[in-house]
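Internal tracking record. Fields below are filled automatically when a chain is submitted to the structure queue. Please do not edit lines marked as system-generated. If the sequence contains nonstandard residues, flag them in the REMARKS field before resubmitting.
Queue: standard
Priority: normal
Entity type: single polypeptide chain
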Amino acid sequence: MEEYIKKLLEQVRFEKAHKAIGEEIRAHIENQIEANVLDGMDKETAEKKAVEDMGDPVETGIALDKVHRPQMAWGVVIVALFVAIVGTLIHVLMAKDPALEYLKYRNDIGSFIMFTVSGISVMLLLYLLDYITVAKYSKVVATCMIAVYMLGIFLRDKVYFMQLEWLDKTGHRTGWENADFPLPIKVLDLTSSFMNPPMLLLIPLYAGIIYKYKGQKYDGLIKSVLWLIIPSYIVSYRHNYVICLIFVLSMLVQLTFAIKKEWLKVSKIPVLITLWTTFSVFLGFVAKKEYERASGTVLRWGGEDGNLYERPTINANIDIVRAYMKQVKLFGNALLSSLGGKSYSPAQYSISDPGTRMILTYILTTGGLIVGIVVIATVVGLIVYGLVTVLKTKNQLGMVIGIGCMMWLISNTVVNILVGTGIIDDQGGGAFLPFVSNDKLVESYALLGILLSIYKYKNAYSQHIDINLRIDLKKLRLKKLK
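SYSTEM-GENERATED OUTPUT FOLLOWS
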């Protein structure tokens, strides 16, 4: 049997698939041996007959070689490129819009193209990486990322106070515009700006962290929950509760899958009910905080009689967006009349940050409902296609990594749709439409790159694989002796 398997595996060029194929073939032969023994054969004859029934090892190996080669999810790549083209066209039109003249100053279209190209490059680079290898170092990488992020926050705060102190001493009390800060402050400011790692990569790393606790009981659960709470809190520093909510939700879905697949040996139903009940309470807390932050806003406008009018509102920005949403057409601009007047103004003059968090508002009010639906459907289609693709992998670790990545993209898409249509407001400024907004472009494509890596090895790894790092003491001693 072992000789047969060895000869078969020699035909499979992708070595990472050897273990999974060997285990599968061995299990199949052993099952056939048991069946032959039950039919009255002796052990030796039963094994010989089982191996013969498998066919020629060379032919079988060649057939398996075709199946287990690294594969590219070309469908995801093509749809991603299509979304990139759609996003670029939207930002080109925005750059030509006279009402958004300030975007030319910000070089919106230039930065969008640059970050899109960078994002696609990162996506293809991550495709070349083995997600199993990354998962092995998940704790180390996550710890370093958190440490760098926290140090960056500390330095940014320190730079801010140093700048204020210098402005006060030199008499530049009006602000930073014309301030020529000393070299030490400039260097520290530049250093802190580079200490902002893409923290969303904690989500795929979290799957590797949970997997390292595989087989543990409630001690593993407690450690997994702590790895969920602490990074989410750190990422939401300065009270951006919506970002924190998205992180918690994405990681909680991963933890739920891990519990259902018995990575952690705990009572499934009570634990899952406790986790999701706690999350629901947290969701209510976030909703309450966001409501409190928006309350007390006063909406002010100038009347045609020259007087200033005002009235209290839950949120002035939501009021403006909702007013325009009522005027959205199937195609074309949504115009809103002035209070009590006959003049009409386009939405572009009232939408804040149309290139990022309010981009869906801009699309709906300038292109119309049909255009908005097409853009949303394109983005959602890419995410759903990616999720369906990742579910094809045999390896549970890869599946959980992919699910976490897709949850992050889905959550941000939903939040941006709610913000862009005036259902909720984005006080924290973190809402964006993946692949279309001029924000988090590289990070969004990076998650697709991780997805491509998972799909690449979908036939290489079995359901479970050991990712715990071990030091071979025997080899270490031999190296020292040499």
